Amino acid sequence: MPLQPVILSGGSGTRLWPLSREAYPKQFLPLTSQHTMLQETVRRLDGLEGEHPHQAIGLLDPIVVCNEAHRFLVAEQFRLLGRRPAEIILEPKGRNTAPALTLAALAATREGLDPVLLVMPADHTIRHEAAFRTAVADAYLIASEGAVVTFGIVPSKPETGYGYIRQGAPHGHPGLSGPAYRLAGFVEKPDVATAENYLRSGGYLWNSGIFVFRASRWLGLIEHFRPDIARSAALAFAGAQRDGDFCRLNVEQFIACPSDSIDYAVMEPLASAPTALDCPAVVAPLDVGWSDVGAWSALWEVREQDAAGNVLDGDAFVHDARNNLLIAQHRMLAAIGVEDLIVVETPDAVLVATKSSAQDVKAVTQFLQGQQRNEYRHHQRVHRPWGSYEAIGHGSRYQVKRLIVQPGESLSLQMHHHRAEHWIIVSGTARVTCDDRTFLLTENQSTYIPVGSSHRLENPGTIPLELIEVQSGGYLGEDDIVRFEDRYNRDAREPH
């Protein structure tokens, strides 16, 4: 029976603003290593096939469920790893983790298979990966016999930001490398006193959001506890269409699906009645250096610190400073005589906060969202399936952008009603289509695209194409676009 990884990549990661933005959330950022958090989640299972002495495990390519707006980011992250996912399922609107997992289970059983699912969020970090793989192999043994397994993190402090799992009697099973317990129940995020009691008792674990069970088991449980979710997800999946590497759901059916989490929809009611359903519910303790990196203070904890407890990333300098997190992306950052601070500098925003107030970053994102500010949704550098662009200047009736077009990629054949464009090639080779002409441009050459002209920009070369685009006109919004052809199958609402 194969093991099917399921990676849930629907989070917005706003608590790590300004590095994480709605259009480019934390799972796509290299926060703890040279790889992004999504890439680390994929790589974490490397070597699992030979991990357990009593069971051979066949590992399948991952199924990823993500927001439709992030589909090209997910595909690019896999491409950079030299991997391919089994499926990228696109959610037209977020409906929480229970519908997302139901879609993945339907995909996993589509060809008549019934694999064991390993369900993982895309934005967690695990320091001791070999120990994690051993725990997964143990959970696979239990789940392959019909049980539902969740991982509980051995707590290191009285944390009030996590929900907890209460472990029951030991779950005996031959051949396990570590302990497992009956799942006695879930408890909500506690206050400090309650969390301290949990830590002293030793019978409580942090809720990791990582699960292992057979695909058919999940489909049966969601049908039992939430038939409305099961029905809507099944209809949305049945009406899905293939679009290259992507699975596009029936939009109307999925938007009608109720929103709920795996815990609330299934795990909590299951913990109250596992015997009645003949479905053992098991919790396996994990002590593997886990973090959900849910706030800047959590990132400070998992990153390497200097002798004074400072984490420095980028062009940062400290003097007589202790226990700070300093991230400099765009310019030199210096901190003197301070402690327990978070300072994050990006090209378009700076965050300064104490570590104790790290959870309050959401107040900034709520303000930006309410004001419809671009700093909530995008970085100054905006990623597109063909590459990226970055605004470098603007004024009345003009703006200037730096575009990078990756080798072999192209922008859509398009037209603008209100703006003209001037393109100056900095490096690489451009193939330009303007109305009925197609021609090549190289370094230091330029061209002019008049208002109303149909045009396309392509990179036929083997190195990135870099150019400066000067837009001029009465309206310069990204929605001034009529798209005629697009290799990425984007609709008219999506810019560039």
Please give a handful of descriptors for the protein shown.
496 residues, alpha+beta, Spore Coat Polysaccharide Biosynthesis Protein SpsA, Chain A, 3 domains, 6-stranded antiparallel beta sheet, 5-stranded mixed beta barrel
Give a quick precis of the structure.
By secondary structure, the protein is of the alpha+beta class.
Main beta sheet: strand number and arrangement?
6 strands, antiparallel
Count of discrete structural domains: 3
Helix content: 10-25%
What is the rounded distance between the termini? Answer: 44 Å
CATH topology of the largest domain: Spore Coat Polysaccharide Biosynthesis Protein SpsA, Chain A
The CATH architecture term of the largest domain is Alpha-Beta Complex
What is the CATH C level class of the largest domain, in words?
A: Alpha Beta
Note down, in words, how this protein is organized:
This protein has helices spanning 37-43, 71-81, 97-108, 129-143, 192-201, 215-225, 227-238, 251-255, 262-272, 296-302, 362-370, 374-377, and strands spanning 3-9, 63-67, 87-91, 116-121, 125-126, 148-153, 164-170, 181-187, 204-214, 241-243, 246-248, 281-286, 290-291, 311-319, 325-336, 341-346, 349-354, 381-384, 387-395, 398-405, 413-415, 419-427, 430-434, 437-441, 446-449, 455-458, 465-473, 482-485. It has 496 residues and is α+β, with helices and mostly antiparallel strands. It has 3 domains: 3-291, Spore Coat Polysaccharide Biosynthesis Protein SpsA, Chain A; 296-370, no CATH class; 380-485, Jelly Rolls. A hairpin with a 2-residue loop joins β19 (387-395) and β20 (398-405). α3 (97-108) crosses α6 and α3 (97-108) crosses α7 (227-238). The longest helix is centred in the N-terminal third of the chain and has 15 residues, at 129-143. The chain starts with a strand and ends in an 11-residue tail after the last strand. The relative contact order is 0.11.
